Amino acid sequence: QVQLVESGGGLVQPGGSLRLSCAASGRIFRIIPMGWYRQAPGKQREFVAAITSDRSTNYADSVKGRFTISRDNGKNTVYLQMNSLKPEDTAIYYCNANTGSNYWGQGTQVTVSS
């Protein structure tokens, strides 16, 4: 099994930046795709970004050009650098791992507000 722990969320003003981290357990981290999803209150959980073991990336149209996903396999950690944040980015952000089964972290709250 994979355990995922997100951190780095918080309150930021529009136009600001935040970096989320997802620490994963297990040596299998090196070979599995990782992703970030988010869910706003009353909304469906939506895809944000993903990264493969060879560091190929994919982004939702809503965040492309503003967010960057990366991974440090030596630290078993995935990052989401979020720049030019907008109020509509406000959500709980979840880390995801897919080993054939989906694993989710507990989520970290990101609030973009003046």
Instruction: Work out the helicity level.
Output: under 10%
Number of helices: 0
Number of separate strands: 11
Query: How would a textbook summarize the main sheet?
Result: 7 strands, mixed
N-to-C series of helices and strands: EEEEEEEEEEE
**Average residue pLDDT:** 95
Oligomer: single chain
Structural class: mainly beta
Task: Note the gap between the termini.
Answer: 40 Å
Spans of at least 5 consecutive residues whose pLDDT stays below 50 are: none
Task: Walk me through the structure.
The protein is mostly beta strands and 114 residues long. The chain contains no helices and eleven strands. The mean pLDDT is 95.
What's the short version?
The chain is mostly beta strands and 114 residues long.
